[in-house]
Design brief:
Helix content is 32%, strand content 20%. The strands form four sheets. It has a four-stranded parallel beta sheet with strand order 2-1-3-4, with helices on both faces. The chain has a four-stranded antiparallel beta sheet with strand order 5-8-6-7, sandwiched between helices. Strands 10-9-11-12 form a four-stranded antiparallel beta sheet.
Length: 333
């Protein structure tokens, strides 16, 4: 019997990777085994021993990202798609949400305060300065939030109360490209796990609490109608982006859910952080997803998820459910 290996590539996590591997192996699915990825060499164009790899670390380790791209070109189903993950960032997420008709806070992209390495003043001759700051502040309003345009989670997020504070924080941001985002004063806040096209787990979340208490919610329960809207919006966003594994955060103001952060392709899934109930859901469903991908794997083709944004933008892209053949020299004329 052919053995299909499911691997998990991870960094400093403990509970999630171990439970993921143990859960898959405990299912005793014929021909399916799971293990922690082991890498001893990476040769160009050569396949790995893994049918499926769940990626939890390549955003912080460029070597792993390059390894996963090579693996994907050689047939491994990598979750999430390393090519798309490399291209995605928060500001694009928001722009896509606008095109999908999903509410998001008003957001403005800001050039880095300091010039990036290997650039000079002449590198930015297309950029007007000073920028039209007053129009920007009128658009987002104050208070607002400043955050890196490509950051994950809450890294580098600052609440801006005044124009004076804006320029102080902006100066300290250095070479990071930032975005200024409208504050949504919320009645409810949700963090939603999303997996594999249609699995959604909605969690009450309180971002103003200390980190270890953020999944503790003492407010009123939301209506079934609101929860269903959040579920549908979560699916629509992730299908547009093409992620297999992500989280979406929603701030609900006057009954309208606004997508706050949905560029989390390696979201927190540690037991002590998310709590036992949420941990149990993500482990069981992540295992299901990985097993399904392994069982449906097609040798000799690129097995990756691409979102509707890419599918609808590229001429001749396969329809939903199809896969791309690996390109050969004969087909590149």
């Amino acid at each position: 019997m052919e053995i299909k290996k499911i691997g998990i590539l991870f960094g400093q996590e403990d509970s999630f990777p171990n439970a993921f591997v143990d859960t898959i192996n405990s299912r005793n699915v014929p021909g399916i085994v799971a293990e922690k990825v082991s890498i001893d060499k990476v040769m160009q164009g050569e396949p790995t021993e893994y049918t499926v790899i769940l990626d939890r670390i390549s955003h912080d380790a460029p070597f792993y990202r390059a390894y996963l791209k090579n693996a994907a070109m050689s047939g491994t189903y990598v979750m999430n798609n390393p090519f798309w993950w490399s291209a995605d960032e928060k500001f694009f997420n928001n722009a896509l949400a606008v095109k999908l008709g999903i509410p998001v806070p008003k957001s403005v992209l800001l050039p880095s305060h300091d010039m990036p390495p290997n650039t000079k003043e002449g590198s930015f001759r297309n950029l007007k300065y000073p920028m039209d700051w007053q129009s920007i502040f009128n658009y987002t309003g104050l208070p607002a939030y400043m955050k890196p345009h490509d950051g994950g989670g809450w890294r580098g997020v600052t609440k801006i109360e005044s124009i004076e504070q804006f320029f102080e924080v902006y100066k300290d941001s250095g070479t990071d490209v930032m975005m200024l985002q409208e504050e949504i004063t919320f009645d409810y806040y949700f963090r939603c796990y999303y997996l594999a096209g249609d699995r959604v787990h909605i969690m009450y979340y309180e971002p103003r609490n200390p980190h270890h208490l953020r999944y503790t919610w003492n407010g009123p329960q939301a209506s079934a109608e609101l929860m269903e809207t959040v579920r549908k919006y979560t699916i629509a966003l992730n299908q547009g982006l093409g992620y297999d594994f992500n989280t979406v955060e929603w701030a609900v103001r006057d009954g309208i859910p606004y997508a706050i952060d949905f560029c989390n392709p390696a979201p927190d899934a540690e037991r002590l952080s998310v709590g036992e109930e949420n941990f149990a859901w993500i482990i069981q469903n992540a295992a299901d997803m990985a097993i399904e991908k392994a069982l449906n794997h097609k040798p000799g083709v690129v097995n990756l998820s691409f979102g509707t944004f890419i599918k609808n933008s590229v001429y001749g892209f396969p329809h939903k459910g199809e896969t791309l053949p690996i390109f050969s020299a004969a087909s590149t004329n």
